[in-house]
Amino acid sequence: MKTRAAVAFEAGKPLEIVELDLEGPKAGEVLVEVKATGICHTDAFTLSGEDPEGLFPAVLGHEGAGIVLEVGEGVTSVKPGDHVIPLYTPECRECEYCLHPKTNLCQKIRTTQGKGLMPDGTSRFSYKGQPIFHYMGTSTFANHTVLPEIALAKIDTNAPFDKVCYVGCGVTTGVGAVINTAKVEPGSNCVVFGLGGIGLNVIQGLRMVGANMIVGVDLNDDKEDWGRRFGMTHFVNPKKVEGDLVAHLVELTGGGADYSFECIGNVNVMRQALECAHKGWGESIIIGVAGAGQEISTRPFQLVTGRSWRGSAFGGARGRTDVPKIVDWYMNGKIEIDPMITHVLPLDRINEAFDLMHEGKSIRSVVVY
Ligand code: NAD
Ligand code: AHE
Ligand code: ZN
Ligand code: ZN
């Protein structure tokens, strides 16, 4: 079949809207009509050429929601008409990782996914006879996409696509990092670095679990109102701090953060996030994704004296199990999504969504098909 897609033909260049050829689902695969997709900073990161796994030409996009159109042989967990969210972290429920209680990083298809291919080692997308790579196993910047069955969460059919697509990455990543990765206790003092599409969801996760102080740190003063809107109690703009930012945060939190979260992808900020964690027990969670060649550093003494450095992918969520529950939380009013979706655009204006993100003018832009 044919489908319209925004294709990343080259790193650093705008996406191009073209009509692609899409092969139907093979055994264990599912054809999905994507109804809406968010644009996450990770899409911009890969498009920039900084992602060591970045491949071109590719159909990017990993924050979608849509409807199952057709299933391949042997597919049993979804059927045509089901509403689904594509999962860049699948959940096969049988690999060594799925069976381990301490991780959500299903590895069943990770190797081919990282090569921009379906599990059989081929692509379903092509343009003028040449294959186009998949991205993160999801490729939601196409109106239709093919995914393995294990990479689909079945959700409430009443949930609006243009809102719950955000659960496909940002909401789950932020809220999940609080609940699943850090397991933040009520009354904790927390610091969140970067109040974008991820950081604000960390903040609403912290509000939900009953954190005490929720300190937001961002270079952009416009983010103060955004943070407070979702439960932030204190705002710090590093540009306005006299002296050392870490010392300021340690003093503000009365000795350091019980939990800190880096939601930017800046290795220098990752160090600040670790070092503002409380001596003896503070934990710092890295969420931000840093480019090829970037490394983190600190004095080992920071860890010797009881701080822990951790990371979180997709909020530690097991997608097929947890994503439908998070959609239900949204439907029941337990978490907010609507105000964070600041811009809604048609596919042919998708490049504007990247501009808005880089200019700090959007929280989340969503493309509706
Ligand atoms: P975003 O662009 O919406 O937000 C980034 C925020 O950081 C902005 O508000 C910006 O003003 C602020 N910022 C930039 N530099 C700063 C600095 N030095 N100090 C303080 N604030 C600063 O991005 P996003 O969509 O929220 O994504 C954030 C990061 O999380 C990206 O690196 C993205 O790739 C990553 N991410 C990781 C996962 C995961 O599973 N680990 C999932 C989604 C996104
Ligand atoms: N390809 C990059 C790593 C990118 C990365 O860390 N991705 C996160 C999700 S970001 C979503 O917005 C993730 O899930 N990581 C686990 C995994 O297996 O990729 C690189 O540096 O190579
Ligand atoms: Zn993302
Ligand atoms: Zn698995």
From TrEMBL:
Domain Enoyl reductase (ER): from-to ranges = 12-367
UniProt xrefs under SUPFAM superfamilies: GroES-like, NAD(P)-binding Rossmann-fold domains
Superkingdom to which the source organism belongs: Bacteria
Keyword Disulfide bond carried by entry = no
GO cellular component, alphabetical, reads: cytosol
Q: Does the keyword Metal-binding apply?
A: yes
GO MF terms listed in the record are: alcohol dehydrogenase (NAD+) activity; S-(hydroxymethyl)glutathione dehydrogenase [NAD(P)+] activity; zinc ion binding
What EC number(s) has UniProt assigned to this enzyme?
Answer: 1.1.1.284
InterPro entries named in the record = ADH-like_C, ADH-like_N, ADH_3, ADH_Zn_CS, ER, GroES-like_sf, NAD(P)-bd_dom_sf
> Per UniProt, which keywords does this protein have?
Metal-binding, NAD, Oxidoreductase, Zinc
Q: Which reaction does it catalyse?
A: a secondary alcohol + NAD(+) = a ketone + NADH + H(+); S-(hydroxymethyl)glutathione + NAD(+) = S-formylglutathione + NADH + H(+); a primary alcohol + NAD(+) = an aldehyde + NADH + H(+); S-nitrosoglutathione + NADH + H(+) = S-(hydroxysulfenamide)glutathione + NAD(+)
Cofactor requirements of the protein: Zn(2+)
Main enzyme class? oxidoreductase
CDD domains, sorted: alcohol_DH_class_III
Q: Which GO terms describe its biological process?
A: formaldehyde catabolic process
Q: What family is reported?
A: Belongs to the zinc-containing alcohol dehydrogenase family. Class-III subfamily.
Protein task: Has high formaldehyde dehydrogenase activity in the presence of glutathione and catalyzes the oxidation of normal alcohols in a reaction that is not GSH-dependent. In addition, hemithiolacetals other than those formed from GSH, including omega-thiol fatty acids, also are substrates. Also acts as a S-nitroso-glutathione reductase by catalyzing the NADH-dependent reduction of S-nitrosoglutathione.
Name used for this protein in its record: S-(hydroxymethyl)glutathione dehydrogenase
Organism encoding this protein: Futiania mangrovi
